Amino acid sequence: MPQSNEKYFLIYNSDGDTYVKEIHIAEFLKEIEDGGYGDHPKFLGGLPKESDTNYWEDSYLIIKGKVVSPKPVEIATKYEIE
After folding, report:
1. Is the pLDDT assigned to residue 24 strictly greater than 60?
2. How far apart are CA 18 and CA 52, in angstroms?
3. Is the dihedral of CA 30, 34, 38, 39 positive or negative?
4. pLDDT of residue 3
5. In angstroms, rounded to a whole number, what is the distance separating the alpha carbons of residues 22 and 11?
6. Paired strand residues for 9
7. pLDDT for residue 4
8. What is the pLDDT of residue 64?
9. What's the predicted TM-score (pTM) here?
10. What percent of the chain has pLDDT over 70?
11. Half-sphere exposure of residue 20, counting CA atoms within 13 Å on the CB side?
């Protein structure tokens, strides 16, 4: 079973719009079992060549990881003598 600090993100297209949604995996799996994503939902097994979700043919992409953001780093002045 996944650790509690692992996050999953569902990326999909609906009516021409792209959505990214954080999901709780246990709840998500229950939704699938209950038919919440249709009778036979399609999931991508990796990053598709086409980044435009309009071409994913109603498939879903699940990514496991964490959201990160770059932070500025202060760099001291460096001196050099030949």
Report:
1. yes
2. 8
3. positive
4. 52
5. 9
6. 22, 63
7. 55
8. 94
9. 0.76
10. 94
11. 6
